[in-house]
Specification:
The complex is a heterodimer of chains A (203) and B (116).
Chain A: H1 7-19, H2 25-45, H3 54-62, H4 65-73, H5 96-107, H6 114-125, H7 131-139, H8 146-157, H9 162-202
Chain B: H1 10-28, E1 31-32, H2 33-42, H3 53-62, E2 66-71, E3 79-84, H4 86-112
Antiparallel strand pairs in B: 1-3, 2-3
Helix pairs in contact in B: 1-4
Classes of the chains: A mainly alpha (203), B alpha+beta (116).
């Protein structure tokens, strides 16, 4: 390997070797040798513009030793940076919790009324519904489908009173439909969010 | 004139694309390192630090995209000649496809925005 006696070149190569201290030894040696050869080749082969100092031009074009070493130790950048953790709540799929909540909201009233309460607890525990939706599921309505049964019993007991004769059946039908509608609504919301969450997690 | 500071995408672009430029130069024939460095350095805006091409060549060798052999040179000291491997060829072809699509899309936007 041809060497040059210009002190600036020697200083540059020393600087490079120091900057490359973190590299594995064989790569460091190879890099310093290659750069040294490059300098030597360029200084002998190249004619630079008049008044341009060939050493200056060569070292300038080579770039800072730190930058060269950075290129030597760079891992290839990741193809796609991992997406930042999403702030939207759903991070898991539609699971047993949600299904149990919905079933108990609808039918839990028949289990001594307590089942519905458990349904409400599960409703509020799930991350798949917003607060508004949880309130909806709680208020519409207490007892779920057991409520119409109760209502039906009341109606039967008060049969004959004209006010209840008209309003009663309407209320009765509403009290069946409302929990069914709410449970269906909550169910589709949850499953759509769970699906979106699992698609996001996979990307 | 180049954008300054953190918003300039060129440094990253160069870093990402430079190795494919090397592969492209090797597509036709095998070359030695100094030759590669000279040619890339002569192209406008492609390389800011010629020294970084050497570690890049080293990595391409480690990754199996190029292979090397020593050949006697007229001046006496043998030179290390680089050539594409089949894997390097495949990588180059894939990049060429991606790049053309990317370049055409960006060009389209830049020209329709009336800035070129």
């Amino acid at each position: 390997m041809m060497t040059t006696t210009d002190p600036r070149v020697a200083a540059y190569l020393r600087h490079l070797e120091q900057a490359a201290a973190g590299l594995p030894p064989d790569r460091r040696v190879e890099l310093v040798n290659e750069i040294g050869e490059h300098i030597a080749t360029r200084l002998t082969e190249r004619g630079d513009a008049p008044y341009a100092d060939p050493v200056d031009v060569t070292l300038d074009r080579l770039g800072e030793p730190e930058e060269i070493v950075a290129a030597a130790s760079d891992e290839p950048p990741p193809e796609r940076p991992r997406p930042a953790a999403r702030t939207v709540k759903p991070r898991r799929g539609l699971g047993g919790l949600e299904v149990a909540a919905l079933v108990l909201l609808a039918l839990g009233g028949f289990i001594f009324g307590v089942g519905w309460i458990v349904g409400v607890v599960l409703l509020w525990m799930s991350p798949l519904w917003s607060v508004g939706e949880k309130l909806l599921g709680t208020l519409v309505w207490p007892g779920g489908l057991a409520a119409p049964v109760l209502l039906g019993g009341l109606l039967a007991a008060s049969a004959g009173q004209s006010a209840t004769f008209v309003v009663g059946p309407i209320l009765f039908v509403l009290s069946i439909l409302a929990p069914l509608v709410v449970v269906t609504f909550l169910g589709t919301r949850a499953s759509r969010r769970a699906k979106a969450a699992s698609e996001n997690a996979g990307s | 004139m180049e954008l300054g500071g953190a918003r300039n995408p060129l440094p990253q672009l160069r870093r990402g694309v430079l190795e494919y430029c090397v592969l492209a130069l090797l597509g036709g024939e095998e070359r030695y390192a100094y030759d590669l460095v000279e040619r890339l350095g002569a192209m406008d805006g492609l390389v800011t630090s010629e020294g970084t091409i050497y570690p890049l060549l080293s990595r391409l060798r480690r990754d199996g995209l190029v292979a090397t052999r020593w050949r006697e040179s007229g001046q006496g000291a043998p030179r290390r000649y680089y050539r594409l491997t089949p894997a390097g060829n495949r990588a180059l072809t894939a990049f060429a496809n991606d790049w053309c699509r990317f370049r055409d899309s960006v060009d389209q936007l830049i020209t329709t925005s009336g800035t070129s």
